[in-house]
Amino acid sequence: GAVVSQHPSWVICKSGTSVKIECRSLDFQATTMFWYRQFPKQSLMLMATSNEGSKATYEQGVEKDKFLINHASLTLSTLTVTSAHPEDSSFYICSAHGQGASYEQYFGPGTRLTVT
Amino acid sequence: GQNIDQPTEMTATEGAIVQINCTYQTSGFNGLFWYQQHAGEAPTFLSYNVLDGLEEKGRFSSFLSRSKGYSYLLLKELQMKDSASYLCAVRDQSGSNDYKLSFGAGTTVTVRA
Question: Who among B42, B98, B104 is closest to A49 (CB)?
């Protein structure tokens, strides 16, 4: 089956620094990738949709200048949390949608971000 | 947007059956998904319904009624490892939204011995 990886799996950073999270589709080409955020005991909240070669589409309330998304190739999307604050601490999950009529999104294992 | 409602918590005994209901409202329905998520892990795909009716896959079954905006996930022969959060998600195909999913808040199922 399709595999999506994320790196790192967990990261601790200090307030004011930036953190980059990578999402890779390992055995298929992902024309579209999605970035979610999940706070403890809450559901997944879509942050943005990332399309290869074009600008990401952000959901309402998500600051595009704070959460930078780059989808430079069909197998890699990155999310950079800039000037991180403790309230950005969360579980960040990406998913990838393949080409063609496949209905399924394949989720990565998630990245646990803690900002101190 | 979508309003997706599902119960917050359910508890059942090992070997029993549990049904998790999900109701939704959407402008351009293009499929309903059920995912299982264990604490601290990413969701794993369980089922997909786009037409009315029942989809059976081993111990798990999912039902959809598009006219009622209603789905349920049926878990049979419950095992301790089934203790997890179960997420109902609706895919929208209105406009150019790239088949994005909207998730319900999730139902935490606790299986007791």
Answer: B98
- Whether residue B98 and residue A97 make contact (CB cut-off 8 A), yes or no, is yes
Structural contact between residues B73 and B60, judged by C-beta atoms closer than 8 angstroms: yes
Q: List chain B residues with CB under 8 Å of A34.
A: 100-101
A37 touching B, CB under 8 A?
A: no
Q: What sign does the dihedral A93-A99-A102-A103 (CA atoms) show?
A: positive
Q: Read off the tokens for B21.
A: 């209901």
Residue B57 touches partner A, C-beta closer than 8 Å = no
Rounded CA Rg of chain B: 14
HSE-CB at A86 with a 13 A cutoff on CA atoms is 1
Dist. CA B33–CA B12, nearest whole Å: 22
- Average pLDDT score, chain A: 90
| Cα angle A34-A3-A90, degrees, rounded to a multiple of 5 | 45
Of A82, A79, A29, the closest CA to residue A50 belongs to A79
How distant is the Cα of A43 from the closest Cα of chain B, in angstroms?
5
CB burial string A86-114: b at 16+ within 10 A, e below: eebbbbbbbbbbbeeeeeebbbbebbebe
Please write the tens of the pLDDT for every residue from A7-61: 999 999 999 999 999 999 998 888 889 999 998 888 899 999 988 888 899 999 9
